[in-house]
Write a structure and sequence with these properties.
Blueprint (H helix, E strand, L loop, with lengths): L4 H7 L2 H16 L3 H7 L4 H8 L3 H9 L5 H10 L6 E4 L4 E4 L4
Antiparallel strand pairs: 1-2
Helix pairs in contact: 4-5
Length: about 100
């Protein structure tokens, strides 16, 4: 007999449930570009049209280990998002603003 996940979730230990949700959020936060694009339900062709580049260029962007910040910003904005950068120090976290 099928059961609703909410029923199972309500019976879980709160600590286990919190850890599970935390682990899931960490996985979401650590996506590679192609995973991000797929999660946003976009194809390389769709993204290429939005970025005004060839599909092969989107593939190259997704496979690069080093790229310009402006390229990454264009990629994220073409998916409908906003790129934010931050510097994390032991005693502080600072959001970095890009010059326009």
């Amino acid at each position: 007999m099928a059961r609703k996940f909410s029923e199972l979730e309500s019976k879980m230990d709160p600590a286990v449930l919190a850890r599970s949700k935390s682990d899931a959020q960490k996985l979401i936060e650590l996506m590679e570009l192609h995973e991000l694009r797929r999660a946003r339900k976009r194809s390389q062709v769709d993204l290429a049209k939005k970025m005004k580049v060839a599909q092969s260029e989107v593939s190259k962007i997704e496979n690069r280990t080093d790229m310009r910040i402006s390229t990454l910003q264009q990629y994220v904005e073409s998916l409908g998002g906003t790129l934010e950068m931050r510097a994390v120090f032991p005693d502080a976290e600072v959001r970095i603003e890009m010059a326009s």
